[in-house]
Amino acid sequence: MAKSVTGGTKEQSLSWGVFRRFVPYLWPEHEPAIRRRVVLALALVLVAKATTLLMPFAYKAAIDRMAPGLQPGVSLAVALVVAYAAARFGGVLFDNVRNTVFERVGQDATQRLATHVFRHLHDLSLRFHLERRTGAVTKVIERGTKSIDVMLYFLLFNIGPTVIELTAVAVIFWVKFGFGMVAATFLMVATYIVFTRKVTDWRNHLRERMNDLDTGAVAKAVDSLLNYETVKYFSAEDREAARYEKAARAYADAAVRSENSLAWLNIGQSFITNLMMAGAMGYTVWGWSKGRFTPGDVVLVNTLLAQLFRPLDMLGMVYRTIRQGLIDMAAMFELVDQKAEVVDVPSAQPLIVSEGRVKFDNVRFGYEANRPILKGVSFLVPGGKTLAIVGPSGAGKSTIARLLFRFYDVTGGSISIDGQDIGRVQQRTLRENIGIVPQDTVLFNDTIGYNIAYGREGATPEEVEAAARGAAIHDFVAAQPDDYKTQVGERGLKLSGGEKQRVAIARTLLKDPPILILDEATSALDSRTEAEIQRTLRDVSAQRTVIVIAHRLSTIVDADEIVVLNDGRVAERGNHASLLRQNGLYAEMWARQAAEAEMEEA
Ligand SMILES: Nc1ncnc2c1ncn2[C@@H]1O[C@H](COP(=O)(O)OP(=O)(O)OP(=O)(O)O)[C@@H](O)[C@H]1O
Fold it and tell me: How far apart are the CA of 51 and the centre of ligand 1, in A?
């Protein structure tokens, strides 16, 4: 996702845009304690710099005391040397106190930003999540939020103080050694910066490539592990390993090239700074020989420049980190800027369910513009009644459930509940009123108890157990050594399909919604458990509106109405008996399934 940014103005506007966006995290409005820490940290930066600038003067004075021909002043020279050491210590002390004070600010900003992005990701549409690889998205967030902390640190505590120090050194040089020395210093710093920037830009290209390859390798590994079972079915371990190795090797090659390029940067930088050091010290030594400067002045120049070079030594890394940080943060803000596809209209009201009457009126929809899935579907489920939707695979049955949940907006027609268009009510209240037992249940990697209790926030253990009994899973849970604390594994893989389905039923029972969708809810169960659950589901269905999506027609013979969906249209409708009389698609499906059942029994 990381974009390479080229061109000065574009880069500046990008940097400015990103800076503007993270200032509120650094200077949060309702957090006076954080703001106080920022101010204190900045004050400590100034104190530390002042201390470091005093140090070379103490050193110089001590050396001058030792010059031949001067009055011996041993005790003063000792005091000055001690002051020099104290100033050195002071610099380190203040810097570290500053780091301690600022740590909370950086961590706090990172945490707030990460939470903001996380919340936003849940607001984005299903389409976004199906199209993006989860591994790649989490990597973008991880890099983006981490970079805010590092960037703040470098900007405030490296670039800022270096600018202050450079200004102070320039003033001192001007006063003591004349304008030539100032000009030489600025020329050196300018050459240093230009060189560092050029080499770092080149290195950045190498790094970006390395990052892309890293993201690719991680995504491949995640995808491969998520498909663990499929890999085994096809004995494709070697194929998977080869694919991963290829990605990892490409990353390793790019990483070697990127890391080796550092040597060029270090060598060039060292050449520039040491040229300056030699020139400045040579000049002061020459001045001393002419009686214009003292030996202490040589020491002063040496110490001031050595101090100035220390943060400059890190400039390449700082520039690269800030630039990379900007790219990472821009990628993250790009995620934040992703508009949610399904949004509440400004005047959205809460959905109020009275009877639970669900109406699809000439609904048209396609996941992609050029491939319609529903081509004008209409049906009405009166409150408290059960509608079954049947039809061939891929006819659009589950799509109807997704549209009722408003994971997507319809492209034509409308869906309403008790006369309220679902596109005009608050999504949260819409989803609160609908429960679903989906075709493929995915569970949280936590305990069975957690997964059932997910159905209703604040549910008591007794309520969880009652729901589990209702879904015929309690006995299974009770037989586990860890009871409701049994871990279900990633995506619930430690449970069988039927057990997962029963957990899904239990949590929906706990939610107790007025409208219920059962999408092949009992397809993964054996016939004995299915009969047991069917009874429960019938009881549950009695008091609410239910839409049942089913393949096995024997499970829906009692439905008040059955809609046969074919090729995106309602091909037939009626109850079981009337549909059999029509002798159409439904009757054909029924006959086929009856024959299959007979063959199984035989
Ligand atoms: N996210 C998606 N993007 C693009 N096409 C999709 C998406 N989800 C489903 N489809 C397509 O839409 C069509 C209808 O899918 P849907 O899941 O509603 O079928 P279904 O009738 O429930 O089938 P089944 O009985 O096999 O579950 C299918 O052809 C499917 O490939």
Answer: 69
The answer to whether the CB of 395 is under 6 A from ligand 1 is yes
Is the CB of residue 375 less than 8 Å from the CB of residue 568? yes
Joined tokens for residue 534: 């069917």
Q: Which of 131, 397, 403, 552 to mutate to test the pocket of ligand 1 (most atoms within 8 A of CB)?
A: 397
Query: How far apart are the C-alpha atoms of 181 and 184, rounded to whole Å?
Result: 5
CB of 185 sitting under 6 A from ligand 1: no
Which amino acid is residue 580, in one-letter code? L
One DSSP character per residue, 464-528 reads HHHHHHHTT-HHHHHTSTTGGG-B--GGGTTS-HHHHHHHHHHHHHHH--SEEEEESTTTTS-HH
What ipTM was reported for this prediction? 0.96
* CA 402 to ligand 1: nearest atom: 18
Closest ligand 1 atom, residue 520 Cα? 27
Q: Which residues of the chain have pLDDT under 50?
A: 1-9
Q: What gap in Å lies between CA 121 and CA 231, rounded to an integer?
A: 30
Reduced to 3 states, what is the DSSP secondary structure of residue 425? strand
The packing angle between helices 179-226 and 315-337, to 10°, is 50
Domains observed in the chain: 8-337 (1.20.1560.10), 358-601 (3.40.50.300)
- Pocket of ligand 1 contains residue 106 by CB under 6 Å: no
The answer, yes or no, to whether any atom of ligand 1 lies below 6 A from the CB of 203, is no
Radius of gyration of the chain (CA): 35
Determine the atom of ligand 1 nearest the C-alpha atom of 565.
21
The pLDDT assigned to 15 comes to 67
Q: Are 158 and 320 in contact (CB under 8 A)?
A: no
**CB distance 447 to 433 below 8 Å:** no
C-beta of residue 433 within 8 angstroms of C-beta of residue 515: yes
Burial class (CB in 10 A: 0-12, 13-18, 19+), 124: middle
pLDDT of residue 9: 47
Please, what is the angle between helix 237-289 and helix 295-313, to 10°? 160
Residue 521 amino acid letter: A
Using alpha carbons, list the distances in angstroms from residue 514 to 436, 542, 562: 11, 11, 20
Half-sphere exposure of 265 (CA within 13 A, CB side): 25
pTM: 0.73
Measured CA to CA, the distance from residue 444 to residue 454 in angstroms comes to 9
